[in-house]
């Protein structure tokens, strides 16, 4: 099947009551398909991304997984800032039971970070962190890539390699940029008021989003 969300709710405690972010989401993401999720700022996109990536659990509901899904590519969190890019790569390779030396060599070849790969990640620019995360995700070879916000890898050897890999894998991109959805996806959904509405027609999804 892939990844399935059944009546997923998410709320956070506040000083008075709870803030409800997701309100009964039902969704199925099949292996190999490419889906764009559009949402305005504050709509709950980051919360949904963390739940899809397994970083955060729903308050209520069920999640079923029968494919591997990457961590949320594009989020600033996830790396240990005091460790080098190479050390972060080794740590992740061990978690996913991948050959450590082979994984580091792959990331070094494709991330195009040069000497920075041996420097602490907290010295990296946002773009360098993104390239590191994208390169490691390629090395792990997930069934589905989960992308949070803009995906900008450029016309480099790595950028072309990542684009080619995306063409052979599933993709869930959560963004506020309609152009990315039109460019990369075959199906789309709109996140608004804590609910997720799917559209088989990309133009219909974009029109609904633009009307919000």
UniProtKB/TrEMBL annotation:
Q: Name one GO molecular function term.
A: ATP binding
Does the entry feature the keyword Nucleus, yes or no? no
Record InterPro entries:
AAA+_ATPase, ABC_transporter-like_ATP-bd, ABC_transporter-like_CS, ABC_transpr_TagH-like, Bact_Polysacc_Export_ATP-bd, P-loop_NTPase
What SUPFAM superfamilies does this protein's entry cite? Answer: P-loop containing nucleoside triphosphate hydrolases
Q: What's the domain of life for this entry?
A: Bacteria
Name the UniProt key words of this record, in alphabetical order: ATP-binding, Nucleotide-binding, Transport
Gene3D superfamilies xref list: P-loop containing nucleotide triphosphate hydrolases
- Domain spans labelled ABC transporter: 3-212
Q: Which family does it belong to?
A: Belongs to the ABC transporter superfamily.
Protein name per its UniProtKB record: ABC transporter ATP-binding protein
Species the sequence originates in? Roseomonas nitratireducens
């Amino acid at each position: 099947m892939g990844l399935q969300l059944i009546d997923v709710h998410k709320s956070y405690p506040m000083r008075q009551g709870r803030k409800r972010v997701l309100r009964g989401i039902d969704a199925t993401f099949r292996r190999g398909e490419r889906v764009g999720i559009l949402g305005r700022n504050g709509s709950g996109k980051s919360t949904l991304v963390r739940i899809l990536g397994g970083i955060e659990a729903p308050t209520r509901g069920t999640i079923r997984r029968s494919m591997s899904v990457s961590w949320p590519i594009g989020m600033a969190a996830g790396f240990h800032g005091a460790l080098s890019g190479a050390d972060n790569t080794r740590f992740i390779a061990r978690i996913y039971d991948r050959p450590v030396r082979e994984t580091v060599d792959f990331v070094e070849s494709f991330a195009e970070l040069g000497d920075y790969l041996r420097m602490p990640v907290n010295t990296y620019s946002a773009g360098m962190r993104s390239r590191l995360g994208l390169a490691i995700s390629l090395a792990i070879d997930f069934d589905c890539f989960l992308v949070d916000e803009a995906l900008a890898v450029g016309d480099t050897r790595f950028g072309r390699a990542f684009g080619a890999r995306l063409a052979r894998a599933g993709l869930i991109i959560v963004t506020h940029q309609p152009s990315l959805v039109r460019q990369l996806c075959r199906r789309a959904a709109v996140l608004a008021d804590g609910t997720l509405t799917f559209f088989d027609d990309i133009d219909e999804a974009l029109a609904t989003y633009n009307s919000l």
